[in-house]
Amino acid sequence: MSWHGANKVSEHELRERLLDGLTGDGRAYRAFLQATSDLLRSYFRRRLTGLPDEVEDLVQECLLAIHNKRQTYDPDLPVTAWLYAIARYKLVDLMRRRERHERRTDSLDDEHAREPSAPEHDEMAERDVNVLLSRLPNRQRSAIVHTKIEGLSVAETARRTGMSESAVKVGVHRGLKALAKLIRGETSRGEK
Amino acid sequence: MKTDDMVSFLASGDVTVDRTASARRFALALIVGLLLSTGLMLALLGVRPDLAQAASRPLFWVKVGFAAALAVTGLLSTWRLGRPGRSLGRLPTGIAAPVVIMWGLAVVTLVRAAPDRHAELLLGDTWASCPFLIALLSAPLLATALWAMRALAPTRLRLAGASAGLLAGATAALVYCLHCPEMSAPFIGLWYLLGILIPTTLGALLGPRLLRW
């Protein structure tokens, strides 16, 4: 569903979508994330020419980071300045992790073996969200599964799980943060 | 997992965000840090007995103003460094200004004073303990400032840590003013600054470890 060619969204549009999203418009927010993932993909593709496999993982890691840190967007700033600052941070972080990993394992053969892998995997990052979710504590996992995957409201989720509404919100928030950490940990091990 | 699925996953449910949450977290961090730091000062050091008298002298307020100016600029830079894409602008100048002014005052004081008083003006009675006491009082503030920073998204971790340290150190210096008996510009420009630089350095060392996200 990525609109090739149509992915040049203007700063203005992007900003509108984000601001609408932050006040509760889920469709606008979705459009914002969609456009953002296109921007991030081309940003990382240009910078990770030797590591095409990392691009999609990094796009997803960034999306999750952007979502978790969305309250740090300052409406006085261009959205793109904010997005690219996050993207740059995550890129540097990835490089640092890889460097540390390589120094630790010193597995040159492993690296060579990875390089020519199939480019059609582009759209598909290697991890499975269900596997990651299974590693979260129960409360966080059920809060996320109900609200984010089954699409229930916070109130419904609270009723079904017997948690309070604020516990559900906290569970989603902490769960997404923990998920971001898991994804980061996984990339840092550099496994396939 | 496809990226489109990730987008749907993140965009479903309630995506509203409380825009005042990080400001409230900062306020809470500062208040708790300030209370702990003041408690520490009262328990270990006590308020100087002649505070009312000291408060009538301009130099007392110069000292307070110095610490307060650094605390405010430290707060602003911490706030900005926590927001991706936000630049510091002229803040580094703002941070340097109180230091330069204090040094200017110190030089004037020293030039005007008789040479045999120089050592006394620079060292006072408490030079050996002053920086460490400020650093000690800054410990709870450094902890709470770093905690508040973790809710934001600093991209320059060392600088962000140092900035949180500056905020903690300068606020602790403000608390320390209530105890400290010293009343000379050279003393403040040297030992207070040193006391503030200890948590600043500590923050720069801790930043990359504690502020990653």
What does this structure look like?
The complex is a heterodimer of chains A (192) and B (213). Chain A folds into 2 domains: 1-124, RNA polymerase sigma factor, region 2, helix turn helix motif (Rna Polymerase Sigma Factor, Chain: A), CATH 1.10.1740; 127-192, Winged helix-like DNA-binding domain superfamily/Winged helix DNA-binding domain (Arc Repressor Mutant, subunit A, Orthogonal Bundle). Chain A is built from 9 helices and no strands. Chain A has helices spanning 11-22, 26-47, 52-68, 79-105, 108-114, 129-133, 138-149, 154-161, 165-189. Chain A is flat and about 50 Å long. Mean pLDDT of chain A is 80; it is low at 1-6 and 113-123. Chain B has one domain. Helices cover 73% and strands 0% of the residues of chain B. Chain B starts with a helix and ends with a helix. Chain B is mostly helical and 213 residues long. The chains are: A mainly alpha (192), B mainly alpha (213). The interface between A and B is large, with 56 and 32 residues.
Q: What is the helix tally of chain A?
A: 9
By CATH, the topology of the largest domain in chain A is Rna Polymerase Sigma Factor, Chain: A
Q: Approximately how much beta-strand content do the residues of chain A carry?
A: under 5%
Oligomer: heterodimer
Give average pLDDT of chain B, whole number.
94
Distance between the termini of chain A: 26 Å
Work out the helix count of chain B: 9
Q: For the record, what CATH class of the largest domain in chain A applies?
A: Mainly Alpha
Q: Tell me the greatest interface.
A: A-B, 56 and 32 residues
Helix content of chain A: over 70%
What's the CATH H-level superfamily name of the largest domain in chain A?
Answer: RNA polymerase sigma factor, region 2, helix turn helix motif
The best one-word shape of chain A is: flat
Q: In what range is the share of β-strand residues of chain B?
A: under 5%
Helix/strand structural class of chain A: mainly alpha
Average predicted confidence as pLDDT of chain A:
80
CATH architecture term of the largest domain in chain A: Orthogonal Bundle
Order of helices and strands of chain A: HHHHHHHHH
Shape type of chain B? elongated
